[in-house]
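Just wondering, does anyone understand these tokens?
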Amino acid sequence: MPLPVAYQDNASTVLPKADYGIKIPKAGFDALTAADNDLLYNSSWPSVQIVKVISVNGGDVVPHGLGFPPVAFILGGTSFTTTMYGQDVDDTNVYPRDTGVMVVYNIDISTDIEYPYNVVSSTNVTYSPDYGIKMVKNGALITSTDLRDYILHSRCGSPLVLAVKTQATVNPANADIVQYTSKLGYATLNFGYSGRPAGALTTSFAVFGNRGYKFAPQNSQSIPIAFTNGFTVYTPIYTGFSDGRASVVCLRSPMFATTNSVVVNY
């Protein structure tokens, strides 16, 4: 997939560091001084919250109730093209194009924002099963080695929101490109969207409402399309197709970088 070597990233909108919340460092690190990638948990990084899980059919119109356009995926569709595919959205509905289980996430793709991070060379430490946060289900033992027994386990990092970049901060040198490059040093989960005006048709031939976005797949042979190498992600603002809006979403997964595999060892 082509890389945006000639393009420049959007302007930064990173939030300031917060001095409150929850921080849990790796064993042997001080929570007051540890770099972000040496923390097992940091409440300054919003986790990807699931808003709705629902079975849908292609052509349905599914209200999400959030008031902004969210991230939504169908998992395991019937078209045999992919097992996970982004859906068209606006500030009221999701417009599934396939039959399957749809998951809606609490991520506003229309608001330009980056979350704070401070990255240094990550230090690997021996995993301790007695360190971090663990919360088990009712009746389960805190010493369980079955992750299905846990409501929360700090060693199992869920995807966290790193940035949402929009047309609001495009570089003037490349005014038709929305682009973001992660500085974490490891590959992230990257997605793209192209803005569509109210009244335009969705993929499923419904009609977009306010703040509509068409998902821009990475393997598309037609517009819209997103490009990424795992570190940089960009999507063009397509003249004649988009209404001048576009978004890229970057999720951190895993939540901290190491030089070896991240696994849960007991």
Remarks:
- DSSP finds no helices and 19 strands in the chain.
